[in-house]
Structure formats: C-alpha cells, structure tokens
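Hi F.,

I've been meaning to write this up properly since the lab meeting, where we talked about keeping a consistent format for the predictions we share between groups. The idea is simple: the sequence comes first, exactly as it goes in, then the structure tokens exactly as they come out, then a line or two of notes. No screenshots and no reformatting. I'm using this chain as the first example so we have something concrete to point to.
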Amino acid sequence: MKVVIDTSSLLSLVRYYLPFDKQTILFEAIKSKIANGEILVIDKIIDECAYTSKGIVLTTLVFLTDKTFNKTNKLPLNTEFILPPAPAKFYRQVDNQFAVRVLTNKLSPSQYDVVKNEFMNSADMKLILTSLSLIKENPNEEIFLVTEETDVSNDKKYFQKIPAICSQLDIQTINIQQLFDKFDGITFEIK
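Output, unedited:
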C-alpha cells in the first residue's frame, strides 16, 4: 500500500494526534513510513506546509526539512514534470467535469486559461496526478490519497475539491484516521 498525503491531513496529524503521542510512537511510525516510501510527501505539499498555520507541520515534523533525511529518502517527491495519463482526454475532463461551471462560465476565455493553469500546477492537482501515476506504475498495489477534504463544494473555488475529482478518476481517498486504521503497527493510546 502507498499513500499520497495532503497538507490538511498533515495538519490534522500535528494538531489533533501528535500532542497526545507522549511516547512518540505515532511520530516514529509516520517518520518510518515516509522514509520507506509507504507515505509519499510531494514538493508542493512541503511548500504549502511552510505557510499553512505558521508552518506548524514543518516545525513538528522536523525531519521533513532535514536535508540528510530528505536526501537519504529521496524526499520530497518532485512533481515538476509529472503529466496526466492521456493528456488530451484529461484536459477535457478538467474543462468539462472538474470545473465548477457556475463560476467558470463567468470568466473570459483568457481568465479561464489563467485559472486552469494555476489549478493544474496546484498542490491538489499534483496530488491527484501523483496518485494516477502510482496507480499506473503499481497496478496490484492499493493506492490512496489522504485528505481531510470532503466532496461538498462550499468554498467558491473554480474547480471541484480533491474527493470529488478522485471519485471521477477512481482514486480512493481516505482521511488521516482511516490511514491509521489501514497501517499495521500504528496503534497508540491517548492517556
């Protein structure tokens, strides 16, 4: 099993779980799973973590910014050149299925192109493209995208949220608690 993890899930981990991890069992388990490639952290997520909630994720999970740890474990995963499978078909899906038409129809074609390019280079899309790539490269392995987002659109964004797009692309999404349930060896008690 491999998972690609979103900023929202890392934020939940450091805010709601690690403060109760007095023996650092959970911390060490997460660090180990990132090191062995079971949990993938992409470059765009590290960038987001730097400015989300005053960088709490990176100050808590200090190994994510440790140059030796990153070099040894080939982190973060570089997504600069990741491409969608069947690009022409995928870009049609972006336009026709992933765009929130109520909002994008109000844009001029040039404005829409700018918004679409920003979305295609966003951390959300890079997570999705990384998941698609992993599914293609590992057809016999379970691949999950871990996010705390729901598919309910309530934030006036031009494109659907991660779970809604993933359901259309047959990418399985789970939240951080479901991730703990799936991984053997991640058990801890709150005392």
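Notes:
Residues 123-137 form the longest helix (15 residues).
The mean pLDDT is 94.

If this format works for you, I'll send the rest the same way.

G.
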